[in-house]
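Predict the assembly for these two chains.
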Amino acid sequence: MIKVSIQYPNKAGARFDADYYVNKHMPMALKLLGDAVKSASVEIGISGALPDQAPPFVAMCSFVCETVQDFYDAFLPHASLLQGDIAVYTDIEPVIQMSEIKLSS
Amino acid sequence: MIKVSIQYPNKAGARFDADYYVNKHMPMALKLLGDAVKSASVEIGISGALPDQAPPFVAMCSFVCETVQDFYDAFLPHASLLQGDIAVYTDIEPVIQMSEIKLSS
C-alpha cells in the first residue's frame, strides 16, 4: 500500500481557508477519487513538537491507495478540477509525496 | 483526535537506515508509547508528485492519540531513550508537528 501526502507549509502572511478545505475541497476530492482511495485523513496544524512552536504545516491530507498508479488513474481525469480548486482556499503551494507504507496499525 | 507527524527531510548526502527505522526504532517506539497511540503509520518516501521527482521526505511516521497531552504523557518518560536512538539510524533532524484530525476514513 502507498500513501499520497499533500502538505501545505505554514508561511507568514499566506492565506488558508481551513473551513473550505475541510468541508468542501476534501469531500469533493474523496468523492472524485472514489474507490481508489482505501482510507484518507485530513488534518489542521496545531503546533510544532512543543505547544509554543508554530506547526510546520498549516494543513495536510493523505490518501492510502493500493499502488501509485491507482492514484494517478483516479486523479488524472479530475486533475484540472481539483488543482483549479486549490486557489479558492489557499495561495500556498503544497508539498506532495508518494510513500510506501511499511507499518500500519 | 490528534496526529503527531514526524518527518525526515530528504537531504543530499544525509544518512538514513530505513531498515533499522522500520524494523527496530518504530516497533520500540510503539511498544513504549503503549495505549496512548490509537493507530500509527510508518512510511518510506518513493517520489514527489511525479515519478521522476525526489520525495520531499525520506521517511515519515504518525501517531494518532486522543489528545496532545496524552502523547506528551506517554512520550516524556521515554524521551531520552527514543530521541537518543535517532542517531543510530539518521543524522537528519526530523520535522515534528501536532495536528487536529478533521476527517478520517
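The mean pLDDT of chain A is 97. The two ends of chain A are 13 Å apart (CA to CA).
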